[in-house]
């Protein structure tokens, strides 16, 4: 795999994991510790912190330029988390289900690409490990009533579209 492609991969993943930590921070800021799903969200937030820390390390180790949109993803992630939490606990879960669905797809595409090129086995193992966590987050969100959120199809569709755009842009910018 060419250096440019590898760097884009690491850049977008670090941006995504950072964005995920901001989503959960936003949700917890609104819900506090007494929300019906606060413990669940705290657990997911801790895992996202771990993912982010490992991509931060990799970014530094490989000399990858971080996304220039860091401040924007910080604000957008936080606003998405806080905004959905304000709509209610089910909307917060719908947000997680939608985001993790897209991340699962994104990581699966990266794993296919890494397998195809037969390079970077360490990165592939890390992505495969994180993908399991993201799938567990999505499943937990669905089990906690994500689909009962008001206007679920619309909300979910909008969030998934936002994620797709964020992924495309963060690979390059
Ligand atoms: Fe993650
Ligand atoms: Fe996640």
From TrEMBL:
Q: Which prosthetic group or cofactor does it need? A: Fe cation
A Pfam entry, by short name:
COQ7
Residues the record lists as binding Fe cation 2: 48, 100, 134, 137
What reaction does this catalyse?
a 5-methoxy-2-methyl-3-(all-trans-polyprenyl)benzene-1,4-diol + AH2 + O2 = a 3-demethylubiquinol + A + H2O
> What family does this chain come from, according to its entry?
Belongs to the COQ7 family.
PANTHER family under this entry? Answer: 5-DEMETHOXYUBIQUINONE HYDROXYLASE, MITOCHONDRIAL (PTHR11237:SF4), COENZYME Q10 BIOSYNTHESIS PROTEIN 7 (PTHR11237)
Record protein name field: 3-demethoxyubiquinol 3-hydroxylase
**Native organism:** Erythrobacter ani
